[in-house]
Please model this.
Amino acid sequence: MTGIEPIRQDAARRFAEMGFPTTRDEEWRFTNVSSIAKTQFSAAPSDLTAEEAELLDQHLFPNEGGLRLVFINGRYLRELSDRELRKGIRATPLREANGAVETHLGRYASYQNRAFVALNTANFEDGACIEIPGGVVVEEPIRLVFFATGGEVPVISHPRNLVVVGPGSQATVVESYIGHGAKYFTNAVTEIVGGDHSVVDHYKVQEEDERSFHVATLQVQLGRDANFSTHSISLGGGLVRNDINAVLAEGTEATVNGFICRPAASMSTITQ
Amino acid sequence: MALLEIKNLHASVAGKEILRGIDLTVNTGEVHAIMGPNGSGKSTLAQVLAGRDLYQVTDGQVLYDGKDLLKMPPEERAQEGIFMAFQYPVEIPGVSNMYFLKAALNTTRKKRGLEELDAIDFLTLVKEKLALVEMDSAFLNRPVNAGFSGGEKKRNEIFQMAVLEPRLAILDETDSGLDIDALKIVASGVNLLRTRDRAMIVVTHYQRLLNYIVPDQVHVLANGRIVKSGDKNLALELDQSGYVGLEEAVTA
Model:
């Protein structure tokens, strides 16, 4: 990932300039993140307690042949992942990916005016990199599972995903965010590139701990005649924010659906 | 029998030449696929055949059933049995699908010397055709394409084709934006409409659609000319090698 080091440094600089948004920022008028800004976060642990391992296991559906990448606090967990390569599909943790990361990562989710994207770009440790060549229909959903654990002190993780779907290809990507424990903060960014005539269905299922913070940015870049849908299902979390941005081209179709099932929490979804 | 004969067709838009000498003969009962990269003139060819006035035909001839097609206004072409499924189907708010189709069908029937269908006969016909594209009858009462998803619009186009029973159907990138399940529905609808006295021209960017609608002939368009013709295997070949070599061959 050395090729993107300048981007990361620039993002860190930009975040230092901006700081966290306040309710005086138009896009954050209804999401007060001062509780995030006030919390001192530490790096999250990589290992799981027996209880956490059991909880995670409950959330991993029996594998039915699809690709699955599992991350603990934003770090890749090989033992629970299943990434059989076929039809030229590449599913790798970001750290092990090369070309696509340098070509695409950070090119779409601009961090110039988005503090949480800047924070993620500067600090992410890992995430999923999915590359699908042109003309391929991936029947089974590709599942990305992010498990967060909070300990004695508040911890933070920055999952970062890149999904590149080639021209004329079809794929379904499911991001699941599950968490357990006291205060923790998941700050995720996913970039999806859909080539000309591609069909991409994206699902995000958020079942974080009710004491946690969850901020997620989805940035979608679509080619001509592409067909994209995203369905965000929010079931957990204390403070939750989903930002969804899509750049369309001629003949593109994009559907954005959201389902929120925790009226007591502060939860908002913004689309642009 | 040659249903459509295109000879040395040249067409331009706003002074820019897009079609630069197309020769193509389509016989009844045949399905021809037109493939090619973006900007090769595929859609222009389809639109010129349908009679869109945006394009000026600068040279050449098109005979449809022996008649001069280019002299006919679009509505006459439709009445003569030419149907076009658009890449981006238009929305017609305020006009129900049912009303639109009934008017269209009865106009063509009159032209063919057939009796107009009354509401009851029409409904029977329409319900039968809806099943072809697995569409719900609720679609009939909705305004034409208004608020339809991309996939619904494309299915609606095939449904219109099923009702109107054209002699020559031109499908312009009917597969664009479709997921694999919708693609199969559209393709099976098209296949059920393949008959010995009907011809189809299927314009597509990708070979994918041709797995389901198997063409009799495949033509590759590049820079406004047909640069290669062959059977269905040509489409597979293109899928492997892409258009690059063919485009270069023309510009060289």
